[in-house]
Predict the structure of Polyketide cyclase / dehydrase and lipid transport.
Amino acid sequence: MRWIKFGVLILIILFGIYAVSMTFVEERKEYTVQSKVGYPIDKVFPQFNNLQNFSHWNDFFTSDKNLGFSFFTPYSGQGSSMKFFNKKKQDQFGEMFVRYENPMRTLRYQLFLEDESYPYLIDVKFVGKGESTDIIWKIQTPKQPLLKRSINLMTEGVFVDKIDKSIKHLTAILGNKVDKENLIASIKYDSIMIENQESALLLGVNVSTSNKKDALIKNIVINHNKVVNFVKQDLGKKDDEFGSPMLITNPNNFKDKEVSYYYGVALPKRIGVQDNNYTFRTVNGGKTYVIYYQGSYAGRIKSVQQLMQKAKKDTMRYNDLQEQFLEEPDAGSDVKLKLQLPVYR
């Protein structure tokens, strides 16, 4: 009994020492971290004010492969928000909000973790310097009650390390994005070329839809969002981990009242997919006739006919048409397509 009383006394003393020591720790801490990205501000800022972009390169989110996300409108700028959660432990979650935006200059985020009453306040300032951008992060930790202030003893090095890793991820994503933009800018449209296509593995959906007026492109946009969101959110793939979206269809069905097509994105290897709505499809390598097209989606038919006429003239047979979207499809805008017709004797 005496030992129990002695143990309780020791615990009370230790608790008292801890409580007194916490009075010397600040309720909240502030850290300022500076970083630099080797791309102009008009390329960098959209990666910050759009939380879908932000979550794909920021190490705070990418380092945990079990995180799932929900995004809420508006999807970018002031008022946008997202919720993230551990897919294995549903009680672990958080929320992030864009509370203020001065375009191309500043952003303020609020980050709530689990059941915290107070958020992290993150102010980010952007300074464009031609072909590079300076970024200044000001991070304020949540206000903590006396007995939880030990959390604020976290060193600045932890934040610096997270931001350094994030900037490396961002630089890689922007590099691929700029390379793609430069490639698109150099394309010569409406000329038939012959290419040797490499084989590819696609993950996507099989679709049948109406071909009246603009119903087809509207349906494509829906399935584009469906496939890309599944690959990013459910499979946890970043933008540089899958290829441009591709639509595969019979080149002779553009006059039919209903069109069937497969829509998918290229993955480096086959992975386990539990959702039966999504299937893998292999695109075989070989000789293809290629034409690049820019304009309304309905207007692509003339270019498709050019490819088929070329195949007929060369006494070649052909397989399904492949429409590779060089930019994200939009029902209200022109499209940029790489039209490929695989041919063989």
